[in-house]
Specification:
Shape: elongated
CATH architecture of the largest domain: Alpha Horseshoe
Number of domains: 2
Oligomer: single chain
Order of helices and strands: HHHHHHHHHHHH
Strand content: under 5%
Radius of gyration: 21 Å
Structural class: mainly alpha
Length: 244
């Protein structure tokens, strides 16, 4: 059996790999540029719920400047940003759906930057309840939930989020594969984890990138745990060729 110490170390390694890949937390940040890009991708608005009003755009721009100042040497002012978020939130019921999702995404920025992970999770979940939520926003929220739940060791919830992401995404994602593999691994569901890890490896290699040694190590350990020693030996030989 794999030791608890080694299991936790591998989990940290995978989470670290995801962080380096831009998957965790930093990849969830929302900005004025983000919704501007969504505006360009989206079809022309047909309802008032499809756009930001000038008043909300101005408020959000000011909040972003407080949290991410453009001038070098200026520190973020999260306290003032939170005050302005709360002021805008007082009109939440009068906002259209796009404005609601934009406001809530900036709340997640605040909670992540102030290390209030539980509040960030609650807010991402709230985003998913918005009736006319854009596909891009839904995908971003589900990706963030998968990342954050995994980081909090809430693996079944991470799996649920990643699976929902795959159900609505038109494309696969190498880091979603890795997130699913890592989450199933931590639930000792190795038969479920291995196919996703292999999919991750194949997708990374197809893009011309190299795989980290700990990815092979994770696959090797799961084969050993399943007593599939033939496959474990094959992976071990690959590791010797690649890394020794």
């Amino acid at each position: 059996m794999i030791s608890v110490h080694k299991t936790k170390r591998l989990t940290r390694d995978i989470v670290s790999a995801l962080t380096m890949a831009g998957l965790l937390v930093a990849g969830t940040a929302y900005s004025v540029n983000t919704f501007a890009a969504e505006e360009q991708r989206a079809p022309p608005p047909t309802r008032s719920s499809d756009v930001l009003t000038e008043r909300v755009f101005k408020a959000i721009s000011e909040i972003q400047e407080l949290m991410s100042p453009e001038d070098e040497g200026v520190e973020p002012d999260y306290e003032r940003a939170k005050v302005q978020l709360d002021e805008l939130n007082e009109r939440y019921d009068r906002l259209n759906d796009f404005e609601k999702s934009t406001l809530l995404n900036f709340y997640t920025n605040y909670y992540l930057n102030t290390e209030q992970i539980d509040m960030a999770l609650q807010t991402f979940e709230k985003i998913l309840t918005i009736e006319e939520l854009r596909v891009e926003s839904r995908l971003r929220a589900l990706m963030a939930l998968g990342q954050l739940y995994m980081g909090e060791e809430r693996y079944q919830e991470a799996i649920d989020s990643f699976i929902k992401w795959r159900e609505i995404s038109e494309e696969e994602n190498e880091n979603v594969y890795l997130g699913l593999a890592n989450s199933y691994y931590n639930l000792a569901r190795y038969n479920d984890a291995i196919p996703f890890l292999i999919d991750h490896m194949e997708m990374v290699q197809a893009s011309g990138k190299s795989l980290a040694k700990n990815i092979y190590g994770l696959l090797n350990l799961m084969y050993i745990e399943l007593e599939d020693y033939v496959s474990a030996e094959r992976v071990t030989k690959q590791m010797v060729v690649l890394f020794d």
